[in-house]
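Quick one:
INPUT:
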C-alpha cells in the first residue's frame, strides 16, 4: 500500500510538472510574420512602437477614422498576429472608430515571450500610449477583447474604467476552460496561468457588451454566459451564429448592427 501511494504521488508530480511546463505552448500560438498591413485592406495606418514597464518593445498599428474622436483598443486572441485581423478592423472602421491594435509580446514584430503577467503589461502600455502620447480622453475609448484577448481587456477595464467594454467569444477563467477540456482530471492541475476574468468583471462599472455564439466549439457559450452573469449593469448579451473564429462574420449584419446600437446608446 505504501509503495502504491508513493508511486501515485510521484506520477502526479511528474504529470503536473509536465502540464505546468506545457501550459504556455497550450495557450499561446504566436506567429511572427506580418502577412498584410492595413494598406492591403485599403486603410491608412501608422506603425506604433511601445515600451512596456518591463522594457519590452511592442509593435502595433493605429488606423485612423476621419472626423471621429472615438478609439477602439483591440486585443486579439491567442493565435496569429495583428495582420490576421483585417476583417474585424474593417468592421470597426465602418462603425466610425479609430482603432489601435497591438501584438502581444512574442507575437508579430513585438519582442519577448508571452505569459499572463506580460500580456497585462502590454495592455497597460497600449492604454498609456492612447491616453498619454495621443492625449485621448478615456471617455472616448472602447476596450475590445476577443477570445483570450477578452481576459486581457477585462483586466485592463477593471483598472482604468473606459467608456465601454466589448467582449467577444471569451471565457470566465482558465480553470473553467480546463474543467471543460479536462473534466475528470482538471482538479489535479497546478495552474500556471489563471486569466480570472470572473473576479475582475465585478469591478467594472462601464457599459458592457458581450457577444458569443452558442455554436462556439472552442470556448463554450455557457462559460461566456457565466462571465456575463457576474458583470454589473449596464450590460447586454448578444448571441452570435457560427463557430469560434468566424462567428463575427457569419453573424453579419446583425453583429455590426448590435455594436453600432451599443455605441450609439452609451457613447452618443
Amino acid at each position: 500500500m505504501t509503495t502504491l501511494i508513493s508511486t501515485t504521488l510521484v506520477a502526479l508530480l511528474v504529470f503536473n510538472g509536465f502540464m505546468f511546463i506545457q501550459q504556455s505552448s497550450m495557450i499561446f500560438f504566436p506567429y511572427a510574420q506580418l502577412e498584410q498591413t492595413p494598406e492591403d485592406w485599403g486603410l491608412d495606418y501608422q506603425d506604433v512602437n511601445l515600451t512596456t514597464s518591463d522594457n519590452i518593445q511592442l509593435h502595433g498599428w493605429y488606423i485612423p477614422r476621419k472626423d471621429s474622436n472615438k478609439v477602439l483598443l483591440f486585443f486579439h486572441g491567442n493565435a496569429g498576429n495583428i495582420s490576421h485581423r483585417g476583417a474585424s478592423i474593417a468592421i470597426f472602421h465602418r462603425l466610425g472608430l479609430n482603432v489601435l491594435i497591438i501584438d502581444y509580446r512574442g507575437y508579430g514584430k513585438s519582442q519577448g515571450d508571452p505569459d499572463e503577467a506580460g500580456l497585462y503589461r502590454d495592455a497597460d502600455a497600449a492604454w498609456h500610449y492612447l491616453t498619454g502620447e495621443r492625449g485621448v480622453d478615456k471617455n472616448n475609448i472602447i476596450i475590445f477583447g476577443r477570445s483570450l484577448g477578452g481576459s486581457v481587456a477585462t483586466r485592463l477595464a477593471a483598472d482604468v474604467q473606459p467608456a465601454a467594454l466589448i467582449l467577444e467569444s471569451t471565457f470566465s477563467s482558465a480553470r473553467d476552460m480546463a474543467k471543460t477540456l479536462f473534466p475528470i482530471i482538471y482538479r489535479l492541475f497546478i495552474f500556471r496561468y489563471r486569466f480570472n476574468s470572473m473576479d475582475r468583471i465585478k469591478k467594472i462599472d462601464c457599459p458592457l457588451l458581450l457577444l458569443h455564439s452558442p455554436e462556439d466549439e472552442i470556448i463554450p457559450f455557457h462559460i461566456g454566459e457565466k462571465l456575463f452573469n457576474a458583470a454589473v449593469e449596464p450590460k447586454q448579451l448578444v448571441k452570435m451564429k457560427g463557430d469560434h473564429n468566424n462567428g463575427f462574420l457569419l453573424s453579419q449584419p446583425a453583429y455590426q448592427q448590435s455594436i453600432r446600437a451599443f455605441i450609439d446608446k452609451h457613447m452618443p
